[in-house]
Design a protein that fits this description.
about 600 residues, alpha/beta, Rossmann fold, 3 domains, six-stranded mixed β-sheet, four-stranded antiparallel β-sheet, elongated
């Protein structure tokens, strides 16, 4: 786990090494200062010169000691400042690289990998978890170096100054270490549970923000508030319990600190009166070293508490970094797609290897290049699952899917997806101008190409009504355009890729039937060589398709033209009659802004 995380240090490795080096110099100087003070006090007490008992004691000698102490203090301050500077640069840079690595890793994930991690969980890992790891890293390269070094050097100097009296400090180290380990053992499971609850809290926020219109439409604000309050209270309860255990660090440290201080003062005073060779200066500086030893342990307890919190964060981050995409481009992958022909050969598919049944079963289908195919079926009939296999968003469980006569697993993923444009069921526009959103389809598209694509998608007409036209700013999520306008912009974006295969996944459900007809007419006239697959809830959207595929329960139950299916296939006929002859059940896609076809 540590090795995985340290890969993100990279160019900040020098800072991460320099910080403990300067910390070491700082510690040595801090441990030598009390020794020099003791020497000064002893010399004054003995009325001896700086260089021994035979020389006279004068202002010059005091000045020499003062200069040495000032120089050591300045050097210690300088080393501490440089250590802090390098530590901050190393930890901030490490966190930056770690966030970048996690984000880039997520971008490489297949849909199957993304299904494994929820969105709130990924957000928590890239924010709270990485912040915890950053703080721990900062403490590890500074405080965790300083504490043991200070303790070791202080123990050595304590033996030099106080002889056997220093064993008192050594004696408290082991029980303190045992108590710290006990605290760690008790709190680690709590923090592991805590971060899962952070995910639940983020999920509550995300759902409420993204579905704010639904919440307000159904007057469910109080319910959402209670849901958030319950998640926050649950998190607070466990966090309080964990912090209550960690809080024992301070009283335990204070108990040992004052206990050792009292013992040293008592025994030191006794030994001084017994004329054992100890003097007041030695005992006073022994107390200083004792304070340094115990302060080091106290600082180490702070590091320890932060490390306990970050262990679970580190595990969660490494879980993402170690996750390998289930989809890879093969060696010597194909980079050219011959044409838009598609073949499904004995295809079975399920989203998880542990799933009991297939989502798609025994799919055999041939689509000629340039053909227009309509796909219709009830909610949950796996229409989207079928087309997801074409651009290899998922791999088949059994059988094969071929594009241009070659198995999709033989293609370079980028090359394949550049030739398969998908307008998803859930339309997404990003914050930025209309031009910037359209150029997601082709970053190098000219203004003329943008105009042509928008005309084909019937989007140019409403764009021209905006004051800034194609420079109109789109808010995050496209909230300042209607559902139909959003769909037409997404279609235009897909057309800019100039793909060999165009998939429309219920992407005209929010436009009126007249505009829908104009879009399909433009497709027939201007991109006849592009294979077009139209998933729809309305039969009017697929009536003029070369063939219509009827799906039910993940199986192809019928295929043919509108005329062939009408009257021969029960599912298709029922849908048609419901939509065109005033049936009791209204078409869901007529009423829903984004359609209601199966998300998969």
């Amino acid at each position: 786990m540590i090795r995985t995380l340290l890969k993100s240090v990279r160019e900040y490795k020098v800072y991460a090494i320099l910080s403990p080096i300067f910390v070491s110099f700082e510690v040595v100087l801090e441990c030598l200062i009390p020794f020099v003070i003791t020497e000064l006090g002893t010399a004054i007490e003995n009325n001896a010169g700086m260089w021994g008992a035979g020389t006279s004691w004068d202002t010059f000698g005091i000045g020499q000691y003062a200069l040495i102490l000032v120089a050591m203090a300045i050097l210690s301050l300088l080393c501490g400042a440089l250590a802090g500077l390098f530590c901050s640069r190393a930890s901030a840079g490490f966190a930056k690289n770690l966030r970048k690595d996690v984000y880039y890793k997520v971008q490489e994930f297949s849909f199957e990998n993304i299904d494994k991690f929820s969105t709130p969980s990924l957000v928590t890992r890239m924010t709270t978890d990485i912040t915890n790891v950053q703080l721990s890293f900062m403490m590890l390269i500074r405080v965790a170096v300083r504490s043991p070094l200070m303790m070791i050097f202080s123990v050595i100097m304590a033996f030099v100054m106080g002889g056997s009296l220093a064993w008192i400090f050594v004696g408290v180290i082991f029980p303190l270490a045992g108590i710290l380990l006990l605290i760690m053992w008790r709190t680690l499971p709590l923090f592991r549970r805590l971060f899962k609850k952070y995910d639940n809290l983020n999920e509550s926020i995300q759902e409420n923000v993204s579905g704010i219109r639904v919440v307000k439409a159904y007057v469910r604000e109080d319910y959402e508030k209670k849901k958030f309050d319950d998640a926050a209270t649950d998190l607070q309860r466990d966090f309080t319990k964990a912090e209550r255990i960690l809080a024992w660090n301070n009283p335990v440290m204070q108990f040992f600190f004052y206990g050792v201080l009292s013992t040293v003062l008592f025994l030191g005073s006794y030994l001084i009166f017994q004329n054992t060779g100890l003097n007041v200066w030695s005992v006073s500086q022994l107390i200083v070293y004792g304070m340094q030893i115990l302060m080091s342990l106290m600082m180490f307890s702070m590091v320890f508490a932060m490390i306990v919190m970050s262990i679970e964060s580190s595990r969660r981050i490494c879980e993402v970094l170690r996750e390998e995409s289930t989809l890879h481009s093969p060696e010597n992958a194909l980079t050219e797609v011959a044409d838009g022909s598609i073949d499904f050969e004995n295809v079975n598919f399920k989203y998880s290897t542990t799933a009991e049944r297939n989502v798609l079963e025994n799919i055999n289908l041939h689509i000629n290049s340039g053909e227009t195919i309509g796909i219709i079926g009830g909610t949950g009939s796996s229409k989207t699952s079928l087309v997801n296999l074409i651009s290899r968003l998922y791999d088949v469980t059994d059988g094969s899917v071929k594009v241009g006569g070659r198995d999709v697993r033989e293609y370079d993923l980028e090359a394949l997806r550049n030739q398969v444009a998908v307008v998803l069921q859930k339309n997404v526009l990003f914050s930025g101008t209309i031009k910037e959103n359209l150029r997601w389809g082709n970053a190098h598209a000219t203004d003329e190409e943008l105009l042509e694509a928008c005309r084909l998608a019937q989007a140019d007409e409403f764009i021209q009504t905006f004051p800034d036209k194609y420079d109109t700013y789109i808010e995050q999520g496209g909230t300042n355009v209607s559902g139909g306008q959003k769909q037409r912009l997404c279609i235009a974006r897909a057309l800019l890729k100039k793909p060999k295969i165009l998939i429309l996944d219920d992407s005209t459900s929010a436009v009126d039937t007249h505009t829908d007809a104009l879009i399909r007419k433009a497709f027939r006239e201007y991109i006849p060589s592009t294979t077009k697959i139209i998933i729809a809830q309305r039969t009017s959207s697929v009536e003029d398709a070369d063939r219509i595929i009827v799906l039910d329960g993940g199986k192809i139950v019928a295929a043919g033209t509108h005329e062939e299916l009408l009257g021969t296939n029960e599912i298709y006929t029922e849908v048609y009659n419901t939509q065109n002859k005033g049936g009791k059940v209204a078409s869901e896609s007529e009423a829903a802004e984004g359609g209601d076809s199966d998300a998969r």
